[in-house]
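Input.
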Amino acid sequence: MIIINHERCSQLDKQYRINLINSLVGYRSLNLLGTQCTDGITNLCIVSSVFHMGSNPALLGLVMRPARAHNDTLRNIVSSGQYTLNNVLPDWYKQAHQTSAAYPSGISEFAICGFTEQYIDGFKAPFVAESSVRIGLDLVEVLDIAVNGTSIVIGEVTQILTADDVITSDGTLNHVVAGTLTVAGLDSYYRTAFLERLPYAKPDHVSDGSPRKK
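Output.
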């Protein structure tokens, strides 16, 4: 058995530690984050830190790395107040991965990485035409995290673009039908497979959903 305590973790090779900690919690959501600056230049980057914050209002959180000179993403979100999250499909994960490269400020990853900008009336940020689930968000709040210099971006979902057969009759979005990929760590991409939908958990039922014996 491997035991890595705090002291040993701090002594690990930097890249080894980065890979270990980034993959530690397993599969994460995978999205392309689309923004546009006030001058009309678009930006696209791959993110794996989106998390659900509530359904009413519909809020999603996103952890952003510390700001760097060439990183236009957070700057664009704050200046425009809108951004998009777009799922990544099997035919596009290599191009999506390439958006993580440190391109100079003012360069659009849409053009360089081969993605198509898509717009809808009344929404400034670009969607990814090659995605099957596209989410438009209005910025609500940016929280600066002192411990490591990151920021948590909180946005309200105001637009959802997808095909009719992707959302089930009870409102659940079927990511297997959508073809959504997921990621573990920084660079390991996976397809998803449906296992089972379980009933709402109640105290008087056991884990298989059957009534608990009294």
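The two ends are 40 Å apart (CA to CA).
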